Amino acid sequence: MWRQLDLNLLDIPVAEIYSAMGFKTSRPDAATMSTTEHLLEEAALFLRPEFKYIEVEGQLAEDTLTLGGVTFGAGRIICRQLRGSQRFIVFVATVGAGYFQWADAVKRRDGVYETYVMDCIGSQIVESAADYMEKVLQEQLDADGLHRTNRFSPGYCGWPVSQQPGLFSLFEEKNPCGIELTDSCLMLPVKSVSGVIGVGPDVRYLPYTCGICDMKMCYKRRK
């Protein structure tokens, strides 16, 4: 399944953007809110988020996950959360190549401040695109009475980001959704995500999962 999205389709919670900017318990100042609103409107001129997911066969062990014949050291935390999965969804999502043009436009007229706000907005947009992807996936699963787990990505919960190329190798094309991998396994555009979702009749989706992870410096950590 591949889909390109209009930004208006996405639920982009501004409160999450402010939280990423450091306003976790306080209200942003008027200048910050005005800049954020302006950049959100501008984002629609540049960004066309995309996602793609494929279904693969897989096997779980205590701390490894084998997908399509490729074995990943996903770690015990992720493997435990995927238990009960009968098959697996491998996915990518991105804000789209327009992010490069948007970043250039912002840098030409400003500097650090708007670039920082744009960075926080881009992070939330790709998260919202991945959330939308999960809704589309669940609509397909509902027809078969199946459920999904949370999505899990390399770089989190003990899964080394260095194993990103193995995940990309499962797609037919080298650069799904136009996403490129650098030698250091960084995705370009940087506002992109990839990972795996477990599927089965008895798996569970947990709305709040920071408690299962020991990654203290994760930017999404709530506690």
SSE order and pairing:
Elements (H helix, E strand, L loop, with lengths): L1 E3 L9 H7 L9 H17 L3 E7 L1 E3 L4 E3 L2 E3 L2 H7 L5 E8 L3 H12 L2 H31 L4 E6 L11 H5 L11 E2 L5 E2 L3 E9 L23
Antiparallel strand pairs: 1-2, 2-6, 3-4, 4-5, 6-10, 7-10, 8-9
Describe what this molecule looks like in 3D.
The structure is a single chain. With 223 residues, this protein is α+β, with helices and mostly antiparallel strands. 35% of the residues lie in helices and 21% in strands. The protein is built from 6 helices and 10 strands; from the N terminus they run βααββββαβααβαβββ. The chain has helices at residues 14-20, 30-46, 75-81, 98-109, 112-142, 164-168, and strands spanning 2-4, 50-56, 58-60, 65-67, 70-72, 87-94, 147-152, 180-181, 187-188, 192-200. A 5-stranded antiparallel β-sheet has the order 1-2-6-10-7, covered by helices on one side. A 3-stranded antiparallel β-sheet has the order 3-4-5, with no helix packed on it. The chain has a two-stranded antiparallel sheet with strand order 8-9. A hairpin with a 2-residue loop joins strand 4 (65-67) and strand 5 (70-72). Helix 1 packs across helix 5 (112-142) and helix 2 (30-46) crosses helix 5 (112-142). The mean pLDDT is 93.
What is this structure, in a nutshell?
With 223 residues, the chain is an alpha+beta fold. Helix content is 35%, strand content 21%. The chain is built from 6 helices and 10 strands, in the order βααββββαβααβαβββ.
What can be said about the biggest beta sheet? 5 strands, antiparallel
List SSEs in N-to-C order: EHHEEEEHEHHEHEEE
Q: Strand portion, in percent?
A: 15-25%
Binned, the helix content reads 25-40%
